[in-house]
Structure formats: C-alpha cells, structure tokens
Amino acid sequence: MSTVMLRCAASMGVLASTLLTNPALAQDTAKAPAAAEQSPFGEIVVTAQRRSERSLDVPIAITTLSDKTLDDAGVRQLSDMAKVVPALRFDKSGVYTQPTIRGVGTAIATSGGGPNVATYVDGFFLPSAAATDFQLLKVQSIQVLKGPQGTLFGRNTTGGAILVTTADPSETPGGEMRVSYGRFDTAEVQAYATGGLANGVALDVEGLYRRGDGFQTNIIDGNDQIGKYNRWSVRTGLKVEVSPDVSAVLRYTHSQSDDPSAVMHNAFVDGDGTRWIYQYTPTGYYATKPNEVALQPGDGIGARTNTDVLQGTIKADLGFANLTSYTQLRDERVKSVQDLDATALPIFTIGIGSNSKTFTQELLLNSKAGSRLQWTTGVYYFRNRDSWPTEAKLGTAPFVKNGESGTLSQAIAVFGDATYEITPQLFVTAGARYSHDWVDQAFFERALTASVYEDANGNAVPFPADVPLYTRFYVPKLTNDRVTPRFVIRFKPSDASSLYASFTQGYKAGLLNVGGYSYRQVKPETINAYEVGYKYARNGITAELSGFYYDYKNLQVSSFQAGTARITNAASSEIYGIEGQVSARVTSDFTVSAGAAWTHARYKKFPNAPYYQFCDPTAAYGTTPTACVPTSLGGLGPGALVETTTNASGFRMQRTPEFTGNIAASYGIDLAEGRLNLSSNLYYTSSFYFGIAEQFRQKGYALLGLRAEWTDASEKYSVAVFGENVTDHRYRSAVNYTSLGIGSVWAAPATYGVTLGVKY
C-alpha cells in the first residue's frame, strides 16, 4: 500500500509543481466542474459531459436529484435512489451491489469483475461492487446518466453512470448534526463541520454512525437480533487555494460495516408453493416468511467491510482551458459468510473474502465556456489487484480453507469529445475513447470443493490426482483494445427546449474467470445504443422524454454451483423503451414531480441459459445433466437441485421490470414561527425475474414514503418524522441462487422514526 501511496503523492506533487511554475496560467480562478445545481434562473446545471452545462443542453437522459429531493424521498444510501429514478434498480449478490439501468447490469461478483453502471464520487470511480452502496454523507446532488457513457466515463459504463457530488471544505465556518431513532431500535448520528485554518486553507470533517437490530428472527433459537448491524465512517478533507489559478483538495475516508442483512436469506417459494431447497428438509429447518430465517447458531453468518480511501484533486486555470487531476488510492477488504443451502441443515456454508487495492489517475482538460466549440479531452489509468480467499464448512465440520483466486487488472485510455455550434439552433457532437485493457498474474487454487477445472475451450478437466490441494494454476494474460465512439445532433427550437438524436457505443472489459476455476477467456460485452429525446424547461416546469434502442452482444452471464461462479459469453439481447419525467413548481409552496419508464428487454439468442431444477432420481449419473449427484460425490441425492441449461431466446432479461415509475410531492407552510414541509414519494415496479431463464419471479409492488419536517425561522433547528414503506409491502431485495438452494433476501417492512437536526 505504501508504494502506491507514494506514487499517488508523487504524481500530485509533480503536477502541482508544473502548474505553479507555468507562467502561462491565466487570471481567472479554475472552477470545479461542479455538482448539479440550480442556476440563478432556476435552470439545472449538470456535469454529464465532464463540464458544467445546463441540463437542457445536454443530449443525454439524466435524472438529477438535489439534496432536498434526496431528503424528501428518504434516500439514505445510494441504493435508495431506485425509488426516485425510473428504470434504475439496485440488487445484491451477497454484499456486492448490482446497479442496473434499462436492463443493463451484471450479476458477477468475482476476481476481475466489475459493474455495468459506473459510480463516481466527486469525479472518482468506485471499482468495487462492495463499495457501490454506501451511506450518503454531505451530498449536494446526484446525477443518473442513462445509456452507455463509454466515451467520457470509461469501459464499464454500458448501462450508464451515477455521479455523486459532495461539499468541498469551506473557509466559512459551518456545521450540522442529525440524530435519528426509528423502528427496530435503529439509531443514527451524522455530523459535519468545516472552517478555515488560514487564508486560502479550509478543512472539513464528517462522521456517521448507524446501528439497528434488524427485522429478522431465527426460528431455530428464537434470536430476534440475528440481523443486528452497525456501520460507521469518517471523512476529512483539506482544500488549499494555492494561487488564484490553482486549488487542491486532499481527502481521506475510512469506513467499516458489520451488516449481515444482505446474506440473511430464507427458502424461496414461488407462486405455486414450490420450495426451492432440498425437498426432504424437515419442517422447522427452513423458513419462508419475510421476517424469518433458519440458521444454525454459531455458523457466523454475516458480512464485514473495511475501506480506506485517499483522494487528491488539483484544479488549474491554464488560460485556454481548465485542467483537473484526479488521483485515487483505495484499499477495500470484505469478508462474508453465507449458508448457501437456505436451510438450517448442516449442508454447506461458505466464507468469501475479497481484498482489493486500486490506483487510478485521470487528467481532464476542458475548454472555456463562451466559444462555438466546446470540448473535453483526457487520459486515464486504472490498476486493480484483487484476491478472493474462500473457506468452506461441510456438514458439521469446522471451516477449512477452500482455495483462492486473484487477478491484476489494468487499463489505459485516451478520450476526447467536442460539441460545435453550427448555428444558434443546431449543434453536433462527436467523441471517441480508446481503451487498452489487460489482465495478468491471474491464478486459481485447487479447491476443496472443486474436482474439475475448465480448460481454454470450456471443457471440464479433472484436477490431476497427484496435485495437492491449494496448488496454484496460473492463467495466461488477457488483452483487449477497444474504440468507443459517440455521435450526437441536437436542435434547439428555443431557449426553453431541445431535441437530440444520438448514437453511442460502450463496452465492458473482458475478464478471466479464475473464481470459476477456468482458463477460458470471457470476451468483452458490447452495446450499440440509439436514442432520441426532447427536453423542456420554463416557468418552473421541466420535462424530458426519450426513446431508445440497444443492440447488446456477448453478455457476460454468471451461474452458481455450490458457490462456484461460472461466467460465459452466452447471450445477445435487444432492449428498447420509452421514459419520461416532469417536475413543476405549482406555487412557491407546492412542487410535484413524476417519472416513468417502459422497458422491453429480451434475450435475442441464448440457447444454453443456466436453468435450475430438481434432479431426476431415475436418470443415470453421468449421462444427463438432470441426474442426481450421489452423496458419495458430495451431492444430496434425490430431492436436490441441479443446474442444467435451457433455450432462453425470447425470454425477458433478468432484473428488468417492464414498467417503473414514481410520483413525488412537496408542500410547505408557515407554522409556529417556522416552516413545515410535507413530502411524499410513491414508487412502483412491475414484476420481474431474478433468475436468467425467467425463474424466481418477484411480483410487482408499490412503496410509499412520507416525511414531515419543521424548521425554525432561523433555519438552525429542525425536527422530522418519517415513514418508509408505510403500507408494509413485503418484497424480495435479492435472490441468491445456487445448485444447493434458492434463497430469498427480503427488504425491510414498514419503518418509521424521528430525526432531530441542528445547523450553525
């Protein structure tokens, strides 16, 4: 870690020295490509094209959420945004978060894997799926960009990008504290303070602590705190105005969590009453109700994360353009223990670790505003080394080492994007990104639970009998080169409206499936996206409408057998749809907004889709994939699940509801020498499938959130009462599917509480 940290500091120092000694620096202070914010004219300013522009002028479908919108909707952590952003979902694979936009997402959590929807915080990419869903701290705004963003945001943005912007340290002293308490003994303390240390030097510090008992009860021993959790984080930043032209921000963040909720699952029961677990599990050894689990006490089921992040941002005005440097070092450690059979029988428990060290460096150059040609260009470097040690518990035996896998993934990229004003009403945009990716130093170990490995052609090969357990097998290097272009034409009928048509391309980097004991290379995903859209903003009304078509090829599809992930390029798909959103300030006291998305997502060609079914005890083992695995070979015999294949061509894509939408309202009134704000948000999703071959259906559901907040006349003190899922709808937030059992992870029931706040 120290070597990379020194490299990080050195690169920042060299850049700062260069900037400080360059006589060509202009007089104007370099401005941050800031958060989405309200202009003096009520226009929303965004950074979707890596420069500050009116949202109206950006030819991308964007949902922009201010800090007030987030508070009103009860958005406490990133995954809560699904309630207010049409066509966005957050699902889980254990502790690993899976964002999906318009049907484009991934279920892959393994060595070298990554998301299809990139998350950026203050310009810094979050590479780990374990870090994607985080508690929001001093957030100013969130922008959700829909569709491939490969030109400006990189290789793994085939679904879109989420841009989170937080407050910079300020020399003006200020701070705030919030204390909340709610159902299930949930308590939260959040505090922030900022101020000047000297002329041109500012510091801020923020902290968060959250704990709760969880809502699950273990039916084996009656423990109603089996889901008990706690999370805490601290974040500090130092901002230095080096000169009128140069500023620098250095940030450090540490966060920890002990939260078993993502791995607390019970038996999945489908609409006809079928329990997708070992069929001969005795009554009392499995749970099906949303608030119950069945776990053997002492198995240690849970999940812990530990993250350290160091980030440095340098901004400089070069006269002809603005330069920004983003330097990041991340160290993330995860340990989860899961009962994969979804019963209390002593069958199989697995512990999965993930250790990830990431270094990123980006240099971004933006043109000055005011000319007919606006452009952005930059270079990017990414380096991630990860390792995934596992341990297993078979039957009543203690945990033993199961093996390990790991990769070193690297990428370099150069990119450019420019918009030219042909006439005051007509604009064209063109851009491209060249990416060079490679994965090497990849390995897997002969594991306790794996009798075979996969060769480069996808054939199952037994491990040699004379090779000891935990012997490392090294996989040859994987290299990819890709150019992702972007073309847009935009017509501006008036200052209040805009029409656009675009073609963009994105790709998700290839990987080595070492977590699946495989030599076979997994090809990159590619997506060609076509979109038309209309935007309007005037007199307190904003509206967007877009239609899109995606040609999606070489999907990286995963399936799981007894904790082993198999990843293949097995599918192509077709996605098209329509979405729209509108907001209106009806009066100075009353605002309403609504959004909806219809998405048609189907696999075009998927002849060998993973499919789970109960084994056939009459089939001879070794002659058909539906045969039961004998107990002498580690199987459960008759009554157990097996993974086979089916032709899923024409099937609905997983985790993609056809319809999602939300309606929100906010009303303020003067009350008791202060201001009372009443807000509500109603979210609806139609049914969808967690599994690939139209398996493990979640029916449609609606979620209603309510909030009332009173603030005194000085705006220093506030008290709020809130309720989430107030109609107490029970629905699954994730499904863990393996050949050992299909487990349901349930979302929380109705929650409510009170929050006290103070500002100075």
Automatic annotation (TrEMBL):
Membrane topology: Multi-pass membrane protein
Domain TonB-dependent receptor plug, residue spans: 56-161
InterPro entries registered for this protein in UniProt: Beta-barrel_TonB, Beta-barrel_TonB_sf, Plug_dom, TonB-dep_rcpt-like
Signal sequence, renumbered to the chain: 1-26
Gene3D superfamilies for this protein: TonB-dependent receptor, beta-barrel domain
Residue span, TonB-dependent receptor-like beta-barrel domain: 270-726
Family in the record: Belongs to the TonB-dependent receptor family.
Protein name per its UniProtKB record: TonB-dependent receptor
Species name: Novosphingobium clariflavum
